[in-house]
Design a protein that fits this description.
Blueprint (H helix, E strand, L loop, with lengths): L3 E10 L2 E11 L4 E5 L6 H8 L7 E6 L2 E2 L5 H4 L2 E4 L11 H11 L4 H15 L14 H13 L5 E5 L7 H16 L3 E6 L2 H7 L2 E6 L2 E6 L1 H5 L6 E7 L4 H8 L4 E7 L2 E6 L2 H13 L5 E7 L3 H9 L6
Parallel strand pairs: 3-8, 3-9, 6-7, 7-8
Antiparallel strand pairs: 1-2, 1-4, 4-5, 9-10, 11-13, 11-14, 12-13
Helix pairs in contact: 3-4, 3-5, 4-5, 5-6
GO molecular function: ATP binding; ATP hydrolysis activity
Organism: Vallitalea pronyensis
Keywords: ATP-binding, Nucleotide-binding
Length: 311
């Protein structure tokens, strides 16, 4: 049994099904990724787990305790990093951490010690005396995470913590998540960035339109498309006759176009590739580039939903 068990939860906002009957478990020491486009239901899901809002129906258990009926069962053990920055801009970094530390019941030497430790974890020790209003977006995100770590939570929920920040801060945050997890912390991480979820997560739930449409390890999810590969061929001119000739090749599953590129989905790329080149060589078109793409989460999402993640 998982440390957290989500069973058939629903949340509607008027006629909008924000979360539509989803279930999943998360095990102790795991990083679970909730992956999906904006509006998929990720933030609503973690708001219910965080006890910020109640589901319309369903059950959420933390260590076998019903947190809908008894939210205090998770609240003291939970760190929550919201998508929006939850800091006081006119206070400096240390003052912000002191405020949130006291909110968690920390005081005196223990609070000072935890501020020191957390500041080192998030890499802002030298900027603690500066006003948050003068921080970069990445520094604010780091401090936002630091505030959620002060009370040493067992479970931390991070809602798209790298939105709108520079690459250096983004990498620091991702590495911080891995370091916290290595020390035993359980993590729920939401994102619409495929590469972040692939980098961090042991288990991935793909969400779309309020539903979980697939769940598993990266390898399990990629296996859903049966090792299908894509051959991207950029050429001069594309016409229906050429596309049909490629579709007629054995082991070609699908042919689509994007601007000046033909995208061919195949099972056996080596054998099919030669046949495709043979077809193209019989035309007057010029090949500018060829790229064979291995299956990835982007391909899985496209396969399951018929659209790219950021559509």
């Amino acid at each position: 049994m998982g440390i957290l068990q989500v069973r058939e939860i629903k949340k509607y906002f008027k006629q909008i099904k924000a979360v539509d009957n989803i279930s999943f478990d998360i095990n102790k020491g795991e990083i679970l990724g909730l992956l999906g486009p904006n509006g998929a239901g990720k933030s609503t899901t973690i708001s219910m787990i965080s006890t910020l809002i109640k589901p319309d129906s369903g059950t959420i258990l933390y260590q076998d305790k019903d947190i809908i009926k008894k939210p205090q069962a998770i609240q003291k053990k939970l760190g929550y990093v919201p998508q929006e920055i939850a800091l006081y801009p006119n206070l400096n970094g240390r003052e912000n951490l002191e405020f949130w530390g006291r909110a968690y019941g920390l005081n005196g030497k223990l609070l000072k010690q935890r501020i020191k430790e957390v500041s080192e974890i998030i890499g802002i020790t030298e900027r603690l005396g500066s006003k948050v209003d003068n921080y970069s977006g990445g520094m604010k995100r780091r401090l936002n995470i630091g505030a959620a770590l002060l009370h040493k939570p067992e479970l931390i929920i991070m809602d798209e913590p790298t939105v709108g920040i520079d690459p250096q801060s983004r990498k620091h945050i991702l590495d911080t998540v891995l370091a916290l997890n290595k020390e035993g912390m359980t993590v729920i991480y939401t994102s619409h960035y495929m590469e972040e979820v692939e980098y961090l997560c042991n288990t991935i739930c793909i969400m779309d339109n309020g539903k979980i449409i697939a769940k598993g390890t990266k390898e399990e999810l990629v296996g859903l498309i049966n090792d299908e590969k894509q051959i991207h061929i950029k050429i001069d001119t594309i016409n229906e006759t050429l596309l049909q000739s490629i579709k007629d090749i054995e082991d070609v599953n699908d042919v689509t176009t994007h601007e000046d590129t033909i995208v061919v989905k195949v099972q056996k790329s080596k054998q099919v590739f030669k046949r495709i080149i043979d077809v193209l060589s019989q035309t007057s078109t010029e090949i500018h580039a060829v790229d064979i793409k291995e299956p990835n989460l982007e391909a899985v999402f496209l396969h399951l939903t018929g659209k790219a993640l950021r559509d």
